[in-house]
Write a structure and sequence with these properties.
alpha/beta, Rossmann fold, 2 domains, two-stranded antiparallel sheet
Length: about 250
């Protein structure tokens, strides 16, 4: 089931839709399939389109200083900022985007909570070795957070499992948290944690949207824009899946 969650959004991405339509064009020789294939790939690859989609997915969040956060029982930092790579037989984690862990450390130094929780993020094809949460724990200690104030949850393969792991860790006592994740992921993550009865203060970081100032480059297809549009579409599909599941 976890593999299905990871693979299905890829099969529904603009690239795969475009490839499917291109195969239809080659098979049937009907020009409309070729035109549709080009549109499905080229339109999301326009920075103008990708950025507008990103703004819609990220929502109306605004950056705030750590001191503006309320005092909570724990700061919860979700996995998804590191990439697992095999180094021989061991897993080596590379930090791809440090906004989440940096925000968690900053909130701890601002004394917004007595505990910093990292989720034990793991991918289904890396079932053994260190989790992302354990790797982030080491970074947080190096950046000045006492190890005694850091907790890593049990293994989690998706947002729903992360919420379950934090829920089990906190128990029935005080259950207010500051939730740190990327802005595009925050609406789904917040709702998922609230479904577990947790009181969530959202703390979005890692904004992907760019300036609204248009240039000629915004109208030229770019691979980075296609990647970003695909990422945002995948998040939108994730929200739809969870909405249907809760319903």
């Amino acid at each position: 089931m976890i593999y299905l969650h990871k693979i299905l959004p890829l099969l529904l991405s603009p690239l795969w839709w475009g490839l499917g339509l291109l195969m239809l064009f080659i098979w049937t020789k009907k020009r409309r399939y070729g035109v549709l294939a080009c549109l499905v790939i080229v339109v999301p690859a326009l920075p103008l389109v990708a950025n507008r989609l990103t703004i819609w997915v990220e929502g109306p969040y605004q950056w705030q200083a750590p001191q503006a956060a309320p005092v909570a029982k724990a700061i919860v930092v979700l996995s998804g900022t590191m990439e697992a790579k095999l180094d021989g037989q061991a897993i080596h984690w590379d930090l791809q985007d440090g906004d989440r862990v940096l925000a968690g450390v900053a909130l701890m130094k601002a004394q917004r909570a007595p505990a910093l929780i990292f989720t034990g993020g793991r991918l289904p094809w890396n079932p053994e070795g260190e989790t992302e949460g354990q790797a982030l724990q080491r970074l947080a200690v190096e950046w000045g957070v006492p190890e005694s104030q850091i907790v890593v949850t049990a293994d989690a393969f998706n947002t729903e499992q992360e919420a379950l792991a934090v829920d089990q860790l906190l128990g029935p006592s005080r259950r207010d948290i500051i939730l740190v994740t990327s802005a595009f992921h925050m609406p789904r993550a917040q709702r998922t944690f609230e479904q577990r009865g947790l009181e969530v203060t959202p703390w979005p970081v890692d904004y992907k949207q760019t300036s609204d100032h248009l240039t000629i480059l915004d109208f030229l297809p770019q691979p980075q824009a296609l990647n970003m549009a695909t990422h945002m579409m995948r998040e939108a599909m994730g929200r739809l899946y969870y909405q249907l599941k809760w319903w």
